UniProtKB/TrEMBL annotation:
<dbReference type="InterPro" id="IPR004396">
    <property type="entry name" value="ATPase_YchF/OLA1"/>
</dbReference>
<dbReference type="Pfam" id="PF01926">
    <property type="entry name" value="MMR_HSR1"/>
</dbReference>
<feature type="domain" description="TGS">
    <location>
        <begin position="271"/>
        <end position="354"/>
    </location>
</feature>
<dbReference type="GO" id="GO:0016887">
    <property type="term" value="F:ATP hydrolysis activity"/>
</dbReference>
<keyword id="KW-0479">Metal-binding</keyword>
<dbReference type="InterPro" id="IPR013029">
    <property type="entry name" value="YchF_C"/>
</dbReference>
<dbReference type="GO" id="GO:0043023">
    <property type="term" value="F:ribosomal large subunit binding"/>
</dbReference>
<dbReference type="InterPro" id="IPR041706">
    <property type="entry name" value="YchF_N"/>
</dbReference>
<keyword id="KW-0547">Nucleotide-binding</keyword>
<dbReference type="GO" id="GO:0005524">
    <property type="term" value="F:ATP binding"/>
</dbReference>
<feature type="domain" description="OBG-type G">
    <location>
        <begin position="2"/>
        <end position="271"/>
    </location>
</feature>
<feature type="binding site">
    <location>
        <begin position="11"/>
        <end position="16"/>
    </location>
    <ligand>
        <name>ATP</name>
    </ligand>
</feature>
<dbReference type="InterPro" id="IPR023192">
    <property type="entry name" value="TGS-like_dom_sf"/>
</dbReference>
<dbReference type="InterPro" id="IPR006073">
    <property type="entry name" value="GTP-bd"/>
</dbReference>
<dbReference type="InterPro" id="IPR031167">
    <property type="entry name" value="G_OBG"/>
</dbReference>
<comment type="similarity">
    <text>Belongs to the TRAFAC class OBG-HflX-like GTPase superfamily. OBG GTPase family. YchF/OLA1 subfamily.</text>
</comment>
<keyword id="KW-0460">Magnesium</keyword>
């Protein structure tokens, strides 16, 4: 599964957030045969559509999609120079598919800040500088080989030119993810700052209701997405029954827990989307990549479904919801037969037809 790597300076609330995520873990309940690693938290992707489908189809159970987070401990200034855990840290980030950077916004004077003051902007700069420096090293190491390869026509010359363009971006102190540069020719380098980013601002409860402050923080990271939460509150919410948790959230002016927001935005940042299946046994969300076509989507259920794909009987959730039943949706002409070139849309409710 694709994963989001959680990074951030010490004492910003990573462990508090990660513990809340793992307490929320669905693995044990729904996926008994999955291996659980201590630094991986797997949470449900909240999807109210599944409850409605279960109602329509009389499903016995609901299986949401999941989102995986990996706790990547140990970034410090100088990580790119291989200090302390630096090398291991960078290797762990390399394996993550997107980066979730936790930034401290809470004031609490009892919790020491590594740099002495709480400053989201300078914290982000510290982390991002390490990623940029690590990428510069990677590129500088590869450049002589790319240059030779271009000269002797043993390598695609685009590798050399792209590496130079990427280096120029990094030299300006910018993350590669902040540019439109096509890095495909040098994909093999696994550049860290090219990964999709989201920022989690761990702020005090009061700040969650202060829209001016939130906008200010969001502007710091745009166009990357920001999630605002109070890690301490989140870890308390986890222990409450659902209705009490919703009440507490409402009292803070929130409609959704920070963890749920993080799951949704994280899933989206990974480039993923879901389609839905429903029947008397279960209503279920399946994870695919944005842009996947119907046969690939079928393959997520079973490889035989992809190989023997004939058609996908498809209705949008909105149409099915409005119709109230599959029969009514069909009668209203809302159910389509899609072929192998159909690009899946978020919220498609599907039944595949296939040869075995
Ligand atoms: P990490 O080093 O980034 O993993 O940070 P921790 O999760 O261990 O948190 C460091 C300290 O800050 C702990 O004492 C936490 O209880 C505290 N802390 C974490 N999140 C919050 C928060 O949202 N508000 C306050 N006031 N304290 C927090």
């Amino acid at each position: 599964a694709l994963t989001l790597g959680i990074v951030g300076l010490p004492n910003v609330g990573k462990s508090t957030l990660f513990n809340a995520l793992t307490k929320n873990s669905v693995l044990a309940a729904n996926y008994p045969f999955a291996t659980i690693e201590p630094n991986v938290g797997v949470v449900e992707l909240p999807d109210p559509r599944l409850e409605r489908l279960a109602e329509i189809f009389g499903s016995e159970r609901i299986l949401p999609a999941t989102v995986s987070f990996v706790d990547i401990a140990g970034i410090v200034k100088g990580a790119s120079e291989g200090e302390g855990l630096g090398n291991q840290f960078l290797a762990n980030i390399r394996e993550a598919d997107a980066i979730c950077q936790v930034v401290r916004g809470f004031a609490d004077p009892d919790v020491v800040h590594v740099d002495g003051t709480v400053s989201p902007a300078s914290d982000m700069e510290t982390i991002n500088t390490e990623l940029i420096l690590a990428d510069l090293q990677t590129i500088e190491k590869a450049l002589p080989r790319y240059e030779k390869g271009a000269k002797h026509k043993t390598l695609d010359p685009a590798m050399h030119s792209t590496a130079l363009e990427a280096k120029a971006v990094l030299d300006e102190g910018k993350l590669l993810s902040s540019t439109k540069l096509d890095l495909e020719p040098i994909r093999e380098l696994g550049l860290l700052s090219a990964k999709p980013f989201i920022y989690v601002f761990n702020v005090d409860e009061e700040v969650l209701g202060d829209s001016a402050k939130l906008e200010e923080l969001a502007a710091l990271v745009a166009p990357a997405k920001a999630v605002f939460l109070d890690a301490k509150t989140e870890s308390e919410l986890i222990d409450l029954p659902k209705d009490e948790a919703m009440e507490l959230l409402a009292s803070l002016g929130q409609e959704e827990s920070g963890l749920d927001q993080l799951a949704r935005i994280g899933f989206d940042t990974l480039g993923l989307q879901t389609y839905l299946t429903a029947g008397p046994k279960e209503s279920r969300a399946w994870t695919i990549r944005k842009g996947d076509k119907a046969p690939q989507a079928a393959g997520v259920i079973h490889t035989d479904f992809e190989r023997g794909f004939i058609k996908a009987e498809t209705v949008s959730f909105a149409d099915l919801d409005a119709a109230g039943s599959m029969a009514e949706a069909k009668a209203a002409g809302r159910v389509r037969m899609e072929g192998k070139d159909y690009v899946m849309q978020d919220g498609d409710v599907v039944e595949f037809r296939f040869n075995v």
